[in-house]
UniProtKB/TrEMBL annotation, chains A, B:
It comes from Pseudotabrizicola alkalilacus. CDD domains: HTH_LacI, PBP1_sugar_binding. Transmembrane segments: none annotated. One of its GO terms (molecular function) is transcription cis-regulatory region binding. This is LacI family DNA-binding transcriptional regulator. Residues 4-58 form the HTH lacI-type domain. It comes from the Bacteria. The keyword Transcription applies. Keywords: DNA-binding, Transcription, Transcription regulation. The keyword Cell inner membrane does not apply. It holds the Pfam family Peripla_BP_4.
Amino acid sequence: MGRPTVTDIAREAGVSLATVDRVLNARPGVRDKTIAAVNEAVARLGYVRDMAAANLARGRILRVAILLPDTESQFLQTLQDALQQAATLASSARMQVELLRFPAKDMHSLAMMLADLAAGGISGVALMAPETPVVRDALRALHAAGVPVVAMVSDLPNSGATHFVGIDSHAAGRTAGVLMGRFLGGKTPRVMVIAQSMLLRDSIERRRGFDAVMQRDFPGIEVGQTLETHGATETLQQVMAVSLAASGPVGGIYLLGSGHRALAQVLSELGLLGRVVTIGHELTPHTIAALEAGWMDAVIAQNVGHIARSTLRVLQAKADQQPINESQERLRLEIILRENLPPSL
Amino acid sequence: MGRPTVTDIAREAGVSLATVDRVLNARPGVRDKTIAAVNEAVARLGYVRDMAAANLARGRILRVAILLPDTESQFLQTLQDALQQAATLASSARMQVELLRFPAKDMHSLAMMLADLAAGGISGVALMAPETPVVRDALRALHAAGVPVVAMVSDLPNSGATHFVGIDSHAAGRTAGVLMGRFLGGKTPRVMVIAQSMLLRDSIERRRGFDAVMQRDFPGIEVGQTLETHGATETLQQVMAVSLAASGPVGGIYLLGSGHRALAQVLSELGLLGRVVTIGHELTPHTIAALEAGWMDAVIAQNVGHIARSTLRVLQAKADQQPINESQERLRLEIILRENLPPSL
DNA sequence: GCCCAAATGATGTGCGTACCTCAAAAATGA
DNA sequence: TCATTTTTGAGGTACGCACATCATTTGGGC
């Protein structure tokens, strides 16, 4: 015998198929006693609803929207590719994914897009966005309408996000700290920290984690203030020069966000490429190349493929009102060196 | 309009449903020209088979067997737990998993179990086993019978294994080498390598990878011969004492396989616990505790949950004659420090 | 142009579930 | 006890696909 079906439940509980159906789908008009009898039969036979058949019968196609900022970073591109691929696969499981991008600086646009989605009858939303009041209100409205919301990469704890798919940024920073401390060895015990901007929750938390470890485990290493570049190579060059002049040479560089290409250029001009321990975040074509070339020593990353698949799985589970397999959805914080780079990408 | 269905394909291609079915399921008796026409319609409409409905219609329950040695190691226990959990989940995807264990030293028993499975009409087999002639022949028989075979953790390249789920052991050894070299810093440049036995393919390849990196990148570090303990604490104590007396103190220890508990004991007795850089393999309760306690510095691991799910997915795909999503099945080689230990396990 | 095999069409059934309608039975209140 | 409401039963259709059978058409060799 294979798995029990509704028919088996009906026989076991001594009721009709219709009644089993009413109980399983919480339809009205069944006595409590009967409900209990059916549930007992379910428990006794170990019945699990065949979600595939259920969704087939419902004839429903899950419409799900994923929103990313339109920033042109390699990480976002990589993430979008992964989502695209996962979406294609998901289409064979009655799920239709709409990949949208919103103006990174215009949270009102994002809020409007979210409102439109709510009005258009979406059954799930995932997004990567900063937690501003406007966004928070829009998400709460979605939540109130019963639409599950998944925060990707950067958490949105105060916006009623149903689920967070991403790594613990503080732990990521701590990991970077340990590696920096140990890799520095006999080099100049001074570390420079560089970021494009400190507006993003992630960067702030990474920095905090990094500092915590450095203070606790490597008190002999001096860590400079965060140098903000705002994305411009010239700014990077300038702030680095000023910092080097003011505080002296450094043995390590910690890159909080993106900007690996610009850093390579400036380091090269300063004759420092490959001579300072360099640690950054996220696996992208640039960081992979940097690891292979040997001038980056380690990258702290999260698996974008995993993020994409996990996001879709969570949205599916929420729509089906099914429990989430926590252990499968828990993202690992990956340490990537040249030696354990994935075979090709 | 929702997604296109077989009916849409039939209309678009100007053929009947039966013919579409014949093409989609690669049944004989269709002209090449007609096949092309159907495939074109499929491409034009962007048809993707609804696997849920397809599997429902097939009404088949995949019977799959997984074989593990009955060795009592924590890694195997962890792996078995992960497989158990994945199997429970897979049962809701019409797959029935039989978890079997075979006597680790008796390959003839294993071969007999495999033969029984083949006779019993199994639709897929996964196993973790050494590649001996007896096993190879049994696996080839399975392969000849059209039963897909998945090698787990340790590859079986010459036995016609359909697929390998696991990490590159040579790369794992190289990674251990890099970490050892960099973590050693100013410590005594001498490393001790310990293994329970060098019979397993994995251990050999790890050792080779480790040596390759040490020779290339850290020529100043002396790496000793592999000390084999054969699982006994007394032996470990003895060989370590002999080695220390003969070659002098060491700054690092590389543990190729299991035996973390015994090592902790001996190190503690020697007053070395936490004073030598210690690197090992696989995430188990013991290694997690060791990382948390701080006497192990790094663990090179593969995600057992991923192995379990990947194994079942691959078996499913093979049974469905479907292509495998390489990027999803590619296992990452994980570096675990205290700072990036998974939140609880 | 005829024949026979190969190719295609037409049609039905079933997988496990959702959802609907109508009839029948049981419980409830007066 | 009867009327009324509530609960339950019986049965059908649909979802998208696999698979089977039988009838019909088509094409190529002669």
